């Protein structure tokens, strides 16, 4: 295929932004959509806690988020939100982002959601108000098989946030791998879809290269246990 035909093919596909949490599910959604070739993903959309310069809920440093976007070869659209953040403030910020998307010819937003109907309903209603359409490429997949496919497909990730009411604190900072899957309690979803844990994706077919990270301090805050990931070597430089 010539460069000209590649350009024509990209122009023919609808443009989409991908809701990027920094975790494994959004990373795998990006990989899945690229393989399918139905959409042209022109940007990654992320809400960032403007007080702490971290990805909302996943608590990943903004510098690592930027490293992900560079490795994914996609521009990053940051939506700054306060902490704490009310629904009204969040929805206003997202509405502004959707207005920008429409101005740029984007009409679709891709999500890595798996099976929570209330979350999907919320996204559909909110985006409909903005004249946008959500896309759920991973929806309804068996999460055990999906988790195993991610790992077999080369995805590498760390658990950055654990809900200690659902999963032991000791899982914070661990790699998302076959050993971890085998040790998860039966009541915990293998992909953490019920909020048991959140992750940071550092390698996989959606990236041009692996992101070298190391696990730093592990702290408990606001009822959750967070593992602070650092670019490899940063801890030594800080000491």
Give an overview of the whole structure.
The chain has 239 residues and is an alpha/beta fold. 36% of the residues lie in helices and 25% in strands. The protein has a single domain, classed as HUPs (Rossmann fold), CATH 3.40.50. The chain has eight helices and ten strands. The C terminus is likely disordered.
Chart the SSEs and their pairings.
Blueprint: H1 3-12, E1 15-19, H2 24-36, E2 40-49, E3 54-55, H3 62-72, E4 76-81, H4 87-103, E5 108-110, H5 117-129, E6 133-135, H6 143-152, E7 156-162, H7 178-183, E8 197-203, E9 213-221, E10 224-231, H8 234-238
Parallel strand pairs: 1-2, 1-5, 2-4, 5-6
Antiparallel strand pairs: 2-3, 7-8, 7-10, 9-10
Keywords:
single chain; 239 residues; alpha/beta; Rossmann fold; four-stranded antiparallel β-sheet; 8 helices; globular
* Approximate strand percentage: 25-35%
Our count of helices gives 8
Q: Helical content, roughly? A: 25-40%
Q: By helix and strand content, what is the structural category?
A: alpha/beta
CATH homologous superfamily assignment: HUPs
Topology-level CATH name: Rossmann fold
Query: What is the overall silhouette?
Result: globular
Known CATH architecture: 3-Layer(aba) Sandwich
Number of domains: 1
**Are there runs of 5+ residues with pLDDT below 50, and where?**
235-239
* Integer-rounded radius of gyration: 18 Å
Task: Give the CATH class.
Answer: Alpha Beta
Distance between the termini: 51 Å
Mean pLDDT, to the nearest integer, reads 93
- Give a quick account of the main beta sheet: strands, pairing sense, barrel closure: 6 strands, mixed
Number of distinct beta strands: 10
Secondary-structure element string: HEHEEHEHEHEHEHEEEH
């Amino acid at each position: 295929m010539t460069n000209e035909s590649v350009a024509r093919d990209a122009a023919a596909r609808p443009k989409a932004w991908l809701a990027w949490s920094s975790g494994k599910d959004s990373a795998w959604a990006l990989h899945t959509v690229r393989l399918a070739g139905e959409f042209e993903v022109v940007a990654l959309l992320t809400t960032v806690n403007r007080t702490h310069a971290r990805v909302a809920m996943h608590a990943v440093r903004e510098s690592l988020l930027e490293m992900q976007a560079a490795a994914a070869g996609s521009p990053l659209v940051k939506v700054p939100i306060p902490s704490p953040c009310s629904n009204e403030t969040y929805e206003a910020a997202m509405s502004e982002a959707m207005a920008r998307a429409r101005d740029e010819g984007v009409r679709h937003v891709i999500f890595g959601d798996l099976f929570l109907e209330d979350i999907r309903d919320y996204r559909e209603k909110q985006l409909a108000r903005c004249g946008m359409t959500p896309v759920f490429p991973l929806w309804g997949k068996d999460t055990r098989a999906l988790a195993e496919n991610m790992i077999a497909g080369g995805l590498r990730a760390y658990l950055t946030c654990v809900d200690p009411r659902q999963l032991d604190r000791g899982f914070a900072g661990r790699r998302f791998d076959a050993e971890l899957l085998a040790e998860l309690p039966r009541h915990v979803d293998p992909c953490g879809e019920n909020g048991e844990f959140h992750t940071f994706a550092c390698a996989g077919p959606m990236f041009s290269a692996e992101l070298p990270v190391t696990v730093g301090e592990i702290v408990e805050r606001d009822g959750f246990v967070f593992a602070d990931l650092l670019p490899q070597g940063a801890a030594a430089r800080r000491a």
